Amino acid sequence: xxxxxxxxxxxxxxxxxxxxxxxxxxxxxxxxxxxxxxxxxxxxxxxxxxxxxxxxxxxxxxxxxxxxxxxxxxxxxxxxxxxxxxxxxxxxxxxxxxxxxxxxxxxxxxxxxxxxxxxxxxxxxxxxxxxxxxxxxxxxxxxxxxxxxxxxxxxxxxxxxxxxxxxxxxxxxxxxxxxxxxxxxxxxxxxxxxxxxxxxxxxxxxxxxxxxxxxxxxxxxxxxxxxxxxxxxxxxxxxxxxxxxxxx
Amino acid sequence: xxxxxxxxxxxxxxxxxxxxxxxxxxxxxxxxxxxxxxxxxxxxxxxxxxxxxxxxxxxxxxxxxxxxxxxxxxxxxxxxxxxxxxxxxxxxxxxxxxxxxxxxxxxxxxxxxxxxxxxxxxxxxxxxxxxxxxxxxxxxxxxxxxxxxxxxxxxxxxxxxxxxxxxxxxxxxxxxxxxxxxxxxxxxxxxxxxxxxxxxxxxxxxxxxxxxxxxxxxxxxxxxxxxxxxxxxxxxxxxxxxxxxxxxxxxxxxxxxxxxxxxxxxxxxxxxxxxxxxxxxxxxxxxxxxxxxxxxxxxxxxxxxxxxxxxxxxxxxxxxxxxxxxxxxxxxxxxxxxxxxxxxxxxxxxxxxx
Amino acid sequence: xxxxxxxxxxxxxxxxxxxxxxxxxxxxxxxxxxxxxxxxxxxxxxxxxxxxxxxxxxxxxxxxxxxxxxxxxxxxxxxxxxxxxxxxxxxxxxxxxxxxxxxxxxxxxxxxxxxxxxxxxxxxxxxxxxxxxxxxxxxxxxxxxxxxxxxxxxxxxxxxxxxxxxxxxxxxxxxxxxx
Lengths: 248, 354, 179
Ligand SMILES: Cc1ncc(C[n+]2csc(CCOP(=O)(O)OP(=O)(O)O)c2C)c(N)n1
Ligand code: SF4
Ligand SMILES: [Mg+2]
What we know:
The complex is a heterotrimer of chains A (about 250), B (about 350) and C (about 180). Chain A has about 250 residues and is of the alpha/beta class. Chain A has helices at about 25-35, 55-60, 70-80, 95-100, 100-110, 150-155, 160-165, 180-200, 215, 220-235, and strands spanning about 45-50, 65, 85-95, 115-120, 170-175, 205-210, 240. In chain A, strands 2-1-3-4-6-5-7 form a seven-stranded mixed β-sheet, sandwiched between helices. Chain C has about 180 residues and is of the alpha/beta class. Chain C has one domain: Pyruvate-ferredoxin oxidoreductase, PFOR, domain III (Pyruvate-ferredoxin Oxidoreductase, domain 3), CATH 3.40.920.10. Helix content of chain C is about 40%, strand content about 20%. Chain C has helices at about 15-30, 75-80, 115-120, 125-140, 145-155, 165-175; strands at about 1-10, 30-35, 45-55, 70, 90-95, 110. Chain C has a six-stranded mixed β-sheet, with helices on both faces. The longest helix of chain C is centred in the last third of the chain and has 15 residues, at about 165-175. The interface of B and C includes residues 114, 263, 264, 266 and 338 of B. The complex binds thiamine diphosphate (TPP), iron/sulfur cluster (SF4) and magnesium ion.
């Protein structure tokens, strides 16, 4: 009988520490499947962020680094400049990438650094207990916006993929979502494209992945996915904001 | 007066509000998050501002901006975030701006973990950032003392125009203890004739600055700072002594480790071992006077810290070779266990054998 | 007196607030008290625990590393913390949710079907207080009177109507272990 589902080889056989219903696990699996399919496991080097996915270096079975909060793109730059033929990717949350690490991500894109960024947007600082993230929606209650995010006090959520797509060095920028199976399939395609862009040496590639955090949103897993669909999709449109002509 | 049960991190927030602090800039990090959570609700109640920055680098520079206008302002973080603030702290010290910085220390180095530690002692007391400067560093050991020291922190920073750091750890931040907070006392903020507020009504020009491009001038500035620091060393050393009368051995410990040492002192005294404790409350200036007062009557010292031996260097400098100074430490987020410290004390009493 | 009480269970079982209630009651009686939760990534697995120390003398470390009493509200908590209880200590096992036995022979173990008993008296929310009642009866660490007084302080006014059933739970729990 043909196996229709198995654990990707690039993912270690161990339980995730993520909460039940957290989509970090799905994103991990997609990245690992892509690495398997492109047969770049031996060349892959992961850079883990600071955030709930800090332990992703345990799950991805390839070589890995653990970077300081927000600096993964700078670390990846260092790696890729020394080892240009390796397949380097960062895996970062929205606090990591869009707040403390804004400088690093913008300038890595501006320089057209040839690595791939997997950007998990869950509209919250999950690991530290549910504080406002730069991507937190207006009106969304968090532990540091107890009355809801107020535009006057905290400005509006940032759309990173659109922002980065206007830079010349960015070769590929897309936003995908994990709220249902059809979108998970689309997400995988985008992640694969991003890695292909890197392998073809075309420059900076980023896939923003809309993700759920049932724990800090205070919702059961299914309701969290619904909340994502109802609230995040209208503000964060899905799609490819930039893609190189050379790639499919 | 009625007591209430309060978390250490929340006590920092309430203590700050009561001391007249109305501006908080910060970035989330464990184990101090209950403080921003508390202030996000509390500041609007008193007409103050809680603003989440995009990083600690931004937080400390927001503090720089607000402090320069004369406002009572604070920020808070833990190890990795405090490291990022070092440049800003050096600028604050150079420009002589008052502010309060809270460090709830966690296990390091690097990302380490979020468990309690005291491994940022060097960073806080010996510089941390670049240049010759000092922070006043306060180390509470209970939730009540946190509330009380927050007032002192703001007062000292205004008095000396110097940043003050309050150092705790995850245990102090997370624990709840009974506290007496009493009624809010009316407070009056001191005049700040140096504050930059615009040249309204033709006021003289003021400048917040740490640039002294001519070396001669920069030296004069450093001499002036040094004079201030000497004054602080003279006037502000604080410590608590616990059962030091007749002690042959004195333990030296601050914060959470001091709490543990206190129970060791009690056990030793019950068994007739003459042991006492000196608990520094100011880590800088280090309470050298307290050590000097004891050094002749005591046979040895034992420093207990949640690090690999940092404050012990200041103890040794103060003891100045007159007595042996021993060290016992747990690190990486581990807390000394009273039984083990007791064993260490016995070992020293028995001439090194357990 | 120096009791170190470790209360552990799932997040949402109210173990943190039960610990706070106990600490508050000790404070009301003028004792030295400290409460500390576990914090950080541990929470991510969905477990929660807190340590409560109640003593006649100042408390050194609030971390309850060697509990005199363990209240295990779910199975992982029993498995994780059984071994650290001091010899001669007490383990309360919430047998509504834990279908295994404690293995220690040098401690006193009480199996209390707290959730079932709480349902019986009318609210699953007071399961923790059934065990708390048994704890007070056995250790006398604080009086029921102090707990009653504290309930008025820690519960918001619109929950004060829950106080009688909380007290009932304490009484039921105490009855279980009364010789
Ligand atoms: C310099 C520094 N500041 C703050 C922190 C604390 N911290 C850890 S994770 C995190 C935010 C994580 O949020 P995000 O990047 O959105 O990831 P998520 O947990 O939501 O997946 C913060 C602020 C840190 N480790 N280092
Ligand atoms: S806290 Fe949120 S992001 Fe973190 S593991 Fe749990 S569900 Fe996932
Ligand atoms: Mg996030």
